[in-house]
Fold this sequence. Notes:
- The chain contains 13 helices and 22 strands.
- By secondary structure, the protein is of the alpha+beta class.
- Strands 1, 2, 7, 8, 9, 10, 21 and 22 form an eight-stranded mixed β-sheet that branches. A seven-stranded antiparallel β-sheet has the order 5-13-14-17-12-19-18.
- The protein has two domains: 15-125 and 142-222 and 392-432, FAD/NAD(P)-binding domain (3-Layer(bba) Sandwich); 227-388, no CATH class.
Amino acid sequence: MEEKRLSGSKDPGVYDVIFVGGGAANTAALLHLLWHHGYDGKVLLLERGKPITERDFDDPHDIVSGFPFGSGQTSDCKMVVSKITGGSLCGCVGMNSFNDAAYRFVEQMSFFNNESIMNYYRSPPPVPPFLHETDFEVIRNGIIHIGTEFGQQIGKRVYNYLVSLPNLDVHCKEKVLDIDLQDKRVFTDCDRTYRGRTIVIGTGKASHDMLQALILKYKLEWSRGEAHVGTRVEVPRGVVKRHIDLYYDFKYILKLPSGDARSFCACPGGQVRRVENYGIYSLNGAAARTEGLKTDRTNFAIIVKVNLNPDADVFQYLYNWGKRINDYHQPKDGIVKVSWKTFLTRASLRALLGHSVWHSIYSWCDEFQSITPEFLDTVQMQFPEIKFATNRPTLTNTLQLVDGVYIVGETTGLTRGLWQSVISGICCVEGMVKEL
């Protein structure tokens, strides 16, 4: 932590910085501004969800939502330590900024974890011969898995620290409806308006509609995000043990004309969780780190990159795809669970998923079976798994949208996963402090 060296304005009617959204990216940004830089200006955090102190963690496997404020899913604090996997943040902010922000985040979390999170780091080994014999492209990444049980504890410590700061106002259960990018005004569902000198938007996928409306209203440049759909699969832990022992969160990509398929978000000894976004039920996985808390099952996702028409709306496609599955034969919890045999033989399920998606999942599983003999006999497939990147507004290398307005985390459309989200928040602050 550095000595205080940044001060805000003295205007009592205006916040120096307003953070919209309290998920992982904005939490990292807040900590970097207030803890690392010692900023003493007037700061406001607006978050639609409940604080971590008001959430019920029935067991240590519960997903760490938001971390510690947000209403989204931070899952089990598993971080793929990579500059390139699944995202393009490094290309935007630059290698040096990315690396420095990564160091600062490790410093943050190690402080609130009471020991270095690098103690949990696993370096990836070379690709073994048995994988060279497949058609998989193997992505080798380092991994840090904090675990659900420790993620809950860290989130509470971060929360307690931030709410104790006299210059930070935290308003949870208050949803932002609109933002005036020119006058720097923020409008909420509590019929309140706030003004700021600087605004940082980090609302993740929840901001898709609002962000797109802002892009169109202010005629900003943007590009379309990507859509990935698929299945969360679950097997006995021993079936995939050698893949877990190698890479923990193993990422095997199969290039296909029907849509590239890849494994994603492995949770050794974890649990499958149902989550809700925009009224659609989908799946996520989470795992504790302590061996005594692990289950006898491992789950991971198989997701397919959807080849959409140029004029297709990503969000509308995903909503319709997920809604069809939620309504399929009216399953009680909106989730469809099938064996491999049922996946192969049920024509109505194939039509529901779409032939291209079905074929890509089938091809990936068939290839995986060649190096994992018991996989198809033991797998339970659960639908829907939905991942998507929000539309990408054109940003500067400090993630500035327009003068005085920044975007971080999944809202940028540049990041994938917790590691890149938190790094984006820190990179943003490093650029922002030069203007404060």
